[in-house]
Every structure is written in structure tokens, then in C-alpha cells.
Amino acid sequence: MRLEIFDSNINTQYPKPLKLKRTHLSLLNRFLYWAVVLVLFSFQSSFANNEKVSFDEPKAELIYPLLVDKFYQQRQNKLFWFAPGAQAAQLRQQLRSLIEREQLLSLDKDNFHYIVLHTIVDSPFMQVDSSTISLDRLYTDAAIALSKSLFTGTDIMTWMRYDAISKTQADVDNDYIIKQLLTVKSAGELNQFFNSLEPQKKEYVLLKAELRAKLQQNDTLQQNKRDVVQVMKLISSMNFFRWIHHFNFDKYIVVNIASTTLSYYENGSVQLNMKVVAGKIATPTPCFATYCNEVILYPYWNVPHSIAVHELLPLFKRRPTMIDAMNMQIIDKNGIILNPDSIKWSSLNKKNFPYKFRQSTGCDNALGVMKFNLTTPFSIYMHDTNVKTVFQSDKRYLSHGCIRLEKPIALGNYLLYNKLDTTFLKACYKNQEPVSVALDKPIPVFVVYITAQADSSNKVEYYKDTYSLIKVSDN
């Protein structure tokens, strides 16, 4: 039985299937790894006689060569894993044990040079030459790769359609890992360092305990598809958790598509929870990470072209009175509002529609009276809604991709430091000109697909895989 993250036929913007135990190394690298192993075994008799041995330099490619260079520059190019003394051998053994331990999180050992590391971990090197230096660098590369997986998550971009946050924080993340690794002096300190990389928050600890318990039921797990799916949900959710929380932002928003909820955090604690409406299966909300930079009061709804030609145009051609009933405006290419009576509607179709629809402002607007602008390449944002009853339903996959908010005014007050004029918003003025309010500092927003979460009673809740992104294969 194999676990995969599944790309449904409908939801084409999500990634292709991913095996739970993925091997990212190429076949060539695999061959080179085993070549190194054979060379090492060929010197086995020399090890037994405690002779000085010079190894061929390992050919395995480094995953993070620039970070490895930086590590040794700060150590004045001194060996770390093969330095004189017993501590070095203990460090090598500890790193190997840590790589084996983290298979719990579905981290593939082969992604951390495990074959080479496992073979030479106890080898008594008697001289320093180019091969020893290369092996020392290989160990450092493995340690950095494992650190990044535990600290920042692994393969996040297989989920994300857009990420405006990680690149801006990459140097900070890398500097932190290098700085902390440089302070390690013993196997115990190495263990403490890796333990510190994972979140210590209660929610994460509960997820990890649940995962450990399920994996201990290995025989049952192989036969129970439901448990296998839950394991996959736990692993992917913990991965999202590590990624989101490692940034340590003082304020941020997490929209969980899988639970159709939003959480607003300040100083690591949730200050506001609310229900949201996410995209329909046919028009799913993608995963992305970006910033909210402004709040727009009494926004226009500029109708996306696909909605305009496939939904509104046929409706207005059949029932022209709906244009006024929905407070819609027809805008030409020059931005001029046209009189609906001046348009020859019979000549228009989805291939011939040179106009735009725009809904006037007010409480009847589809965006309600508040829009939270998100800096993405998509026409997706968070907004109020003129249909509040949708939040009474447990099934809230109804939008074309945008995120409708249950408590937009409450969120606005947090982001604008309680300076929001709620009386102005509740007045429901019609045709009010939009008012843009820039945030003092853009707020990070993570729109993710977390299918397992610990609730307030310390129990793990599993959410339905509505977009069919997690699938179990019988192969």
C-alpha cells in the first residue's frame, strides 16, 4: 500500500501525486552512493589492522553546497565530524541516529546521504586528506538538510501555488541553522539542537503523539485504509505546522481550507477564530502564502471575466432587469460606465464581450462592506459577504476561489488597531466611494490545507479531504 498526495482531475492547480516515502535523489546519485560504499568495503581489512587509509573522494553531490561553505568558513575550515578525539565519532553516530529517528515524519533517509553516513560512521580515520575533508562536508550537508526539513518543513512548494514569504526569510532561516550548528560540541548538544528545531506548541506535540501511536500499530495500519489516510493527514499537517510557525511572526493569519476556518495570531497565540467560505470543488481555493497590505471599505466587486461571460451575461440577456436589481454597472475599455439600454445584448457572447461588469458598493455587494487585499497573482482575496446565512452550514465550499469571512469587522479591528469606524460600515450606504486603508505593516497570510488538527479538548480532529488531495494507492 502506498500513500500519495493526489492531484484530482478537477483541481489541476495542485501538484502531481507525491509518494509518502519519496526518494529525491537521481538514479545517478544512487549509483555514485553505492560506488562509494563499495570503495569503503574494499578497505575493510585495512580498518581491522588499524592502518592509515586514504579514501577516494566521495562523489555524492552536496544538497546545500553554499551553506556548507559558509559553515566551514566560520570554522576556519577545521574538521567537525572527523576532528581528533572521541567526540567526533559520537557526533557521527548521533547524526545517523537522528536521521533514522526522523523517519517518523516521513523524512526519507536517502535525502540525507544516509547510505554513505551509515557505512563510515564508525570508521577509524587515521589521517586527514582530501577524502576525509569531503566526507566531513558530506556530514555537514546531511545535518543542514535534516535541520531545514525539521525547521522549515519539507517539500512545501509541492502544495503551494504561490509563496511570497519563504524567499524573503530564507537567509534568516539559513543563518539561524548555521549559527546553532556551530555551537554544538557533543552528541548530547546535537540531539538538543535538533529537538529545538521542531515546534514545542501543544497542538504540534499532540499531532506527533497521535502519529507515533498510529505507526506503532503497523500491522493494523497496513490493512486499514482509514488509518493510512489519517497517517498521511497527520504528516502533511505537521509539515505545514512546522513551516508556518518557524517564521515566528508577531502577527499572522492562517486560513485552513480543509476546515474552512480562519485563525488570527498575535505573539504565537490565537486571538480570533472564525468560519470562512472557500472555493467550490470546480473552482478551488489554492494554497498560497502572501501578505495582506490594505483593507478596502465599501469595495466594488469587479466581476472576473470568466464569471461575467459564463454566468452573468446569459442571465442579463434573458432578464435585463437583473442588471439594476443586482446594482451592476457595465464598464467599457476606457473605464466609462455605460447605459445598459445602449448595448446590443443579442450580439454579445462569451467570445465577444468587450466590457466589464462591476457591482456598486453597499451591503448588497457580493463582497459586503469590507475587502482584505492580498498581494498575489490571483484574483483571490478575503472579504465580507452579503449572504451571512452560509456560515450556519457545515459545508462551506461555495465560492469561485475567494475567501468569505464570518467576522470581517472583528478582523479589521485587529489589523487596524481598533480604528475601524463600525458605524460607517453598518450604515450600509449605497454607491459609497470605496475607502482604502493601508496597514501600518503588511500581515502574513497563509492559506493552507491542514487536514488534521488538535482541538480544545486535546483530541485530534480529522477533516474531510474535500478537494481529494490525499489519496491512498493500493500499488
Helix-strand blueprint:
Elements: E1 2-5, E2 18-19, H1 27-42, H2 44-48, H3 65-74, H4 86-101, H5 114-120, H6 130-152, E3 162-163, H7 166-182, H8 187-197, H9 202-216, H10 218-223, H11 225-246, E4 251-256, E5 261-266, E6 269-279, E7 288-297, E8 301-302, H12 305-318, H13 322-325, E9 328-331, E10 337-338, E11 356-359, E12 370-374, E13 382-383, E14 397-399, E15 403-405, H14 408-415, H15 422-426, E16 435-448, E17 452-454, E18 460-462, E19 470-473
Parallel strand pairs: 3-7, 4-16, 6-14, 13-15
Antiparallel strand pairs: 1-2, 1-19, 4-5, 5-6, 6-15, 7-12, 7-16, 8-11, 9-10, 9-11, 12-13, 17-18
Helix pairs in contact: 1-5, 3-6, 3-7, 4-8, 6-7, 9-11
